[in-house]
Amino acid sequence: MSFWQFLFVRSSLFYLLYTALTGSAFYLWPALVGYFKTTHVHAGLVGFFLSMVMGVAYWMMPRPGQIRQERLEGLTYVLLNAGLLLRLVLEPLMLYTGNPGLRPALAVSGLLQAGAVAVFAYAMSQRVFTKERLLQMAEERKRRQQTSS
């Protein structure tokens, strides 16, 4: 497991804890629901679930030719978490203060997360091939090894 894959999985557990704590806080302080409900759900779905899926996919999905994608893993992680943390802080603040000036920063948080999804989709597209294409790639690799020896 690479450093970035480790961070995806560990971060997802942080977001799971955040989701559990905010959900519990709603019973103790019901007035918080209006400010934190959407970030509570977002932390659970994007923070926990999507981070776990991305981390495990980068770790477990086949890597034809043993490709390494550390840069894409890192870029995905940074974009996703920067956008998510920005939203987790700014959205409740905007709802509490009523400051519409925070909307552009929230839009940036969404764009960061969408960028992470785009990078992830590109990285996974480099790993997903048909059986026939994988056999063809193996044959090409075998021929290169024979000509180089």
Task: Give the proportion of residues in helices.
Answer: over 70%
Strand content: under 5%
The structural domain count equals 1
Mean pLDDT: 92
Biggest β-sheet, characterized?
none
Taken in chain order, the helices and strands follow as HHHHH
Radius of gyration: 20 Å
Overall geometric form? elongated
Q: Helical element count?
A: 5
Number of strands: 0
Task: Tell me the span between the first and last alpha carbons.
Answer: 32 Å
Given helix and strand content, the structural type is mainly alpha
Runs in which pLDDT lies below 50 for 5 or more consecutive residues are none
Overview of this protein structure:
It is elongated and about 70 Å long. The protein has 149 residues and is an all-alpha fold. α1 packs antiparallel against α2, α2 (33-60) packs antiparallel against α3 and α3 (70-97) runs antiparallel to α4. The model has no long low-confidence stretch (mean pLDDT 92). 83% of the residues lie in helices and 0% in strands. It has helices at residues 3-28, 33-60, 70-97, 103-125, 131-148. The protein has one domain (3-148). The chain contains five helices and no strands. InterPro entries: Cyt_c_oxase-like_su1_sf. Keywords: Membrane, Transmembrane, Transmembrane helix.
